[in-house]
Write a structure and sequence with these properties.
Length: 390
Amino acid sequence: MDDKNIRIFSVVMNVINLLVAVVILNNNTMENRTMLLVAFIVLIALYFINNKKINKNLPKQGNVLGVMNTLIILFIVFLDTTGASIVLLLVNVGTAIINNSTKVALGFALTNYVVYMLVVFFKHEVLNLYNVSIITINFTFACVLTIAVKYELNEKTKAQLISKELEERTDELERAYEKLQELYEDKEEIIVLKERNRIAGEIHDTVGHILTTVTIQLEASKRLIKKDPDLALEKLNSAQQQVKTGLSDIRKSVRALKDGEHLLDFVDILRTFVEEVKKNNDLDIEYDLAAIPKLDGKIENIIYRALQEGITNGIRHGKSKRFKVNLKCENNTIKFILQDEGQGFDKFKPGFGINNMRSKVEDVGGIFNIESKINTGVTIKIEIPMVEEN
């Protein structure tokens, strides 16, 4: 139990003691009030010392204070004529249960019970079956109630610690995920740069090849134009066709170089992302990414974000270490499936990420479905009518 709960419990117990003190002082004889008042002052001082934890590192002295506290209460019980003083003893027992192990506290409670009976006996009060039963019920109820309160407070403290630990792990995961995104973006830029350099090399090679071929054809045409005009014309036509073909190849390369965002194939982008996630998060991800036609950028973005969100949720909420990814084009429909082997759930309450994903899929005329059961993980299924890139 944390210090905050102990302090709250101590305040409640002290308030009860104060109310009992007022009742006892108002309803006892004048000759007993002075001794009772002194006893209550000493009792308050002992509570004050315990609450301030002056004896935190002195357990023996703390035990002595506990015994003194019990003796003062028994003295009050002996002087009290109202019977309300039993509440002080029950509060004392409850405090012992809260601050000690259950075994020690129950031994303490049993000792107080026996001593209380002896004090009542020496006061010459009647100890018949009814009185003994009432006292026993009071002590039993106080012990059970305090143990139940202690259990609930301990469970609450454990839940708070677990929640705090989960928040810390979530923060670590989010930082790792952000770092992964940065690494992925850096790698994508490097891949794009390499691809641009490759295309630039292709343009250089294409132009060099065309010029060399055309030069040879033209030289041959010049030599043959008088001897064999038909063959010379054939060489000229061949050179012309070479120029047209070369220009077409160069235009394609220039367009690819200009539209850098289309240099990478979408399936390659997904594959690169999965490999980076596997490497940086120690995950086992099986993936089957079939070749698909070039899609509209909006659809590609939906599938990519679904992959990101699904893996993130599987790690964060499902504690999953294994995933399966499937992407294919079937019956003119793009089908995407992501499965994890995490904890799963029975009652699903979608968060912002899932709701956003569903909204995007439905905006393009697709179907979004999520399935799960406890201990069977989560499966996300997306089907979108295929729209090729404009």
